[in-house]
Amino acid sequence: MLADDSPHAQRMGERILREEGFEVVSLTDGDTAVKRMADVDPDLVIADVFLPGRSGFELCRHVKTNFRHARVILTAGLLEKFSEEDARLAGCDALLRKPFEASTLLGAVQELLEKSAAGKKDGSALPGGGLDRNSIRAAVTLALDSAMPTMIEELTERVVLALSHRK
C-alpha cells in the first residue's frame, strides 16, 4: 500500500514497485488508507508523514495495532521537518526521504517484506492452499483495482457503440 498525497511521489513509487513485480494500491489520504486496510491486508505500507486526514504516524500506529505482520516505511520530503523520535514511537520500520532513489526504496521494501512474511500469522487456512479468507479477499481486491480502468473503458465503448446503433 502506497499512501501519498503528492501525485509525483505516487507515480514514482508505483513505477518503481510495479517494475519489480509488486502489486500496489495507491491512496491519497490516511483516512482512506485505514478504510482499505481490511480489504487489502498489506504486507507493507509506505506512507507520507504528512498525509491529509490521518497522518503517516497515525496510519503507522493503526497498522502496528491491527496488522502486526505488516511493515511500515514513513516518507517525508527533504525539506519537511518531522520528529524521527515520533516516527520510532509510532512503530515505523524505516524512514525514507523523498525523492528517493529506486535502489534505496527497493532495498528497504525487500528487507521489510521478508520480515513481514516471517511475521505473518498462519490464520485459519482454507483447504488446499493454505490461504486464509483475508488473503484471498486482498488478492481479489488488488485484481479488481488493477482491472478497473480497462473494464470502465471497455464498458464505455460498448455503451457508445450501442447508443450509436439506436439512431
Walk me through what this model shows:
The protein is 56% helix and 13% strand. It has six helices and five strands, in the order βαβαβαβαβαα. The chain is α/β, with parallel strands linked by helices and 167 residues long. The chain is elongated. The chain has a five-stranded parallel sheet with strand order 2-1-3-4-5, with helices on both faces.
What's the SSE blueprint?
Blueprint: E1 2-3, H1 7-19, E2 26-27, H2 30-40, E3 44-48, H3 56-66, E4 71-77, H4 84-90, E5 94-98, H5 102-119, H6 133-166
Parallel strand pairs: 1-2, 1-3, 3-4, 4-5
Helix pairs in contact: 2-3
Strand order of the largest sheet: 2-1-3-4-5
Overall mean pLDDT: 85
Any idea of the CATH class? Answer: Alpha Beta
Roughly what percent helix?
Answer: 55-70%
Q: How many E strands?
A: 5
Keywords:
alpha/beta, five-stranded parallel beta sheet, Rossmann fold, elongated, single chain
